[in-house]
Amino acid sequence: MPTTGGEPLSSGQAQDVNQIIAFGSGRTALKFIAFSALVLVVGLAVAFGRDNWLLGGPLAVVAAVTIVWQINGLLTAEPLLLLSPAGLRLNLDGYVFADIPWREVEDISSLTLTYEALKKRWYDIQGDRPGYVLDKDHYRDVTALQVSEAFADKTILPLWRAVNRNSRGLRRFGIGMATFTLAQNATASRLSNIFPTQDGKRFVALPHSVLSVDRDRLRVEVEARWRAFGKKTATG
Description:
The structure is a single chain. The chain is of the alpha+beta class. It has one domain. Helix content is 36%, strand content 25%. The longest helix is centred in the N-terminal third of the chain and has 24 residues, at 53-76. The chain crosses the membrane at residues 29-48, 54-75. This is DUF2982 domain-containing protein. It comes from Mesorhizobium erdmanii. Keywords: Membrane, Transmembrane, Transmembrane helix.
């Protein structure tokens, strides 16, 4: 039985491994929409309540556009992750997709990934007023597929470059994993926590919170297909 960075999960818990399973943004997109709705309300309150259209107007417009964009993506975007007998397909930004055959997966483990997020702090240093600060947070126990350095360089690196090119044009508004997965820090690529490197090993990470799926269910479905269709099997 393959080593998976912990107790192996029973493939009997998984659905039929020949089925294609899709995971979307779901709850994650709804959180974005809810936050944008709050910003919209604040913008309208500033514009109408305080008669400050210079600040409130643009804020409300940006929030409204974001809500429409996210709702459209929620209804029409490609799934963020597809699991099939052939492998897994990651929708990176709505235009670029990563296809990873099961035979290229060397191991499955769990990782903790660090990212920076804007967090509220109750008092700032200067004026004892509510404020916000960039702080570290974590995606914990993320299902991660280890791939070879050769596969990462040949297959993943060109996709990384393509996503970065798209981020500088109109395609930046596509909906994919990079839309919702937060980067390791403010200067890192949006893909830094999707294709992380740890201890010299290359991984494809599947943050279950981004995919709006239970951690254990995702791990079971991924592991069952890897055992069935990958190089490593329970007998060898």
